[in-house]
Design goal:
Elements lengths: L2 H27 L9 E7 L3 E5 L2 E6 L3 E8 L3 H31 L6 H17 L4 H59 L5 H20 L3 E4 L5 E5 L2 E5 L2 E2 L2 E5 L5 E5 L2 E2 L6 H36 L13 E2 L8 E2 L18 H4 L10 H41 L3 H35 L1
Antiparallel strand pairs: 1-4, 2-3, 5-6, 6-7, 7-8, 9-10, 10-11, 12-13
């Protein structure tokens, strides 16, 4: 082995250790970067090459070490599992969010429909004890107005939920489209990039980051081409291949529910992810509003029928207390004067009709319907919250498993950095030794 071999071995060692330290530095800098996969530089011993020199006999030339590739730590099965649990968690989070908003909209408190109905019936009972009391009559009309306001608040709240799901779904659809566009560029870059390089590893990280954005929002099928380029399908249709990507859009129907379209044509409703949760919630909000509308119409009908059976102080038949079209938002109070209250009955009892208010509070009454609506909503929300907790646990488990393979352990990186620095210093010493040998030979000559 000549001093030239030592120079070659030392310089190759410096290059190799510098590359390793660069990878370690990237790992430490990106320890908390989402979707970053740990890098390692794979080295191998340079091939021993036979050579001939003009003035010397043939000999072996030792080249030291060489960089084989920059490896990206990952497991495709763990990556897929993390994407799947992320999709389920996105759906659960979206459901809980909108169901909680529906719960707030229905508002089963003192100012909600149930609470104001109870207050109204209490006011009528008090008036029955003193049917000529003007203050109690005024209070009865006031409590009727409160019931109307409660129906309006719940109707407005549910309408806001539907509008919110639409706006959110539009935003998530835009993110999906943007990620699909980004993946077309990444696919092209992967075709031109050399596997085993730092650039290739970065492209793979970028690819997986965009896939994560998509799968958090939409249940797509994922496969990979021969160059690790992403291929995506939805509902049996290919939506991404090579540098060609489809486009989605979300529309709101007249009734507040949502329609999903692929390239301008209606397609299957998202079944999972944030978009799946938004679409399902919009449909449920529509159902809740339909139930509320039905209760509002029934309330007006029942109260008007009860009031029509009584007589006013002027012995006129009781007029309509409420007016309504087909929605809770159209419910309104029709009576404005306390003299219009039909408190008595034809048999002469001054509070007879007021005492008959119980006919509107049976098993099929609005109160019972409201209780059933609230109970159904509470049960649905409770189930969704339990599913969210389970989805969070599964997602955390999947991501932890992925992190054990792909994540950065700072203690490990610190140990590798120390080892690499020592190897770098050793390579420098080889060069220094080769220099000293060469200097000694020159002095002897």
């Amino acid at each position: 082995m000549s001093s030239a071999d030592l120079f070659s071995i030392g310089s190759s060692g410096l290059r190799s250790m510098r590359a390793q330290m660069g990878a370690i530095a990237d790992n430490i800098a990106n320890a908390n970067t989402q979707n970053y996969n740990r890098r390692t530089v794979l080295l191998q011993e340079s091939s021993v090459a036979a050579s001939s020199e003009p003035l010397y006999v043939p000999r072996a030339s030792f080249g030291g070490s060489e960089i084989v590739s920059v490896d990206r730590a990952n497991d495709i099965y763990l990556d897929a599992a993390a994407r799947q649990t992320g999709t389920a968690l996105g759906y659960a989070n979206s459901r809980v969010r909108w169901l909680s908003d529906m719960e707030t909209a229905l508002g089963d408190d003192a100012l909600g429909v149930g609470g104001t109905l109870n207050t109204m019936y209490g006011a009528i009972d008090k008036l029955a004890a003193s049917p000529t009391d003007t203050a109690l009559r005024t209070n009865m009309i006031y409590t009727m107005d409160q019931v109307v306001n409660a129906f309006h608040r719940s109707s407005d709240g549910l309408t806001t939920v539907m509008q919110g799901t639409f706006t959110t779904a539009q935003n998530d659809t835009t993110i999906v489209n943007d990620s699909l566009t980004a993946l077309t560029r990444i696919n092209e870059d992967l075709l031109r990039s050399q596997p085993g390089t730092a650039n290739y590893a970065q492209l793979m990280d970028n690819r997986d980051a965009e896939l994560t954005k998509i799968t958090q929002r939409l249940n797509v099928g994922i496969s990979f081409g021969p160059n690790d380029d992403a291929i995506l399908t939805y509902n049996g249709s290919t939506i991404l291949q090579g540098n060609t990507a489809s486009s989605f859009d979300t529309l709101q129907n007249a009734n507040g529910t949502l329609t999903f379209r692929l390239n301008g044509v209606a397609t299957a409703t998202p079944a999972d992810g944030l978009l799946g949760g938004a679409f399902a919630s919009a449909t449920l909000a529509r159902q809740r509003l339909d139930s509320l509308d039905t209760l509002a119409v029934q309330f007006s009908t029942d109260m008007n029928a009860w009031h029509a059976q009584g007589l006013t102080d002027a012995n006129a038949a009781g007029g309509a207390l409420f007016s309504v079209g087909t929605t809770a938002a159209s419910l309104a109070t029709s009576i404005g004067n306390i003299t219009q209250i039909a408190a008595k009955t034809s048999d002469g009892r001054p509070n007879g009709n007021l005492l008959n208010i119980g006919t509107t509070r049976g098993n099929s009454s609005v109160e019972k319907g409201w209780t059933a609506l609230i109970a159904s909503q509470a049960s649905t929300l409770s189930t969704a919250q339990a599913e969210q907790e389970a989805a969070e646990l599964r997602d955390e488990t999947a991501r932890s498993a992925r992190e054990r393979v792909s994540g950065v352990d700072l203690d490990r990186e610190a140990a590798d950095l120390l080892r690499t620095q020592q190897a770098y210093q050793a390579a420098a010493k080889i060069i220094q030794a080769a220099k000293e040998i060469a200097d000694t030979i020159l002095r002897l000559s």
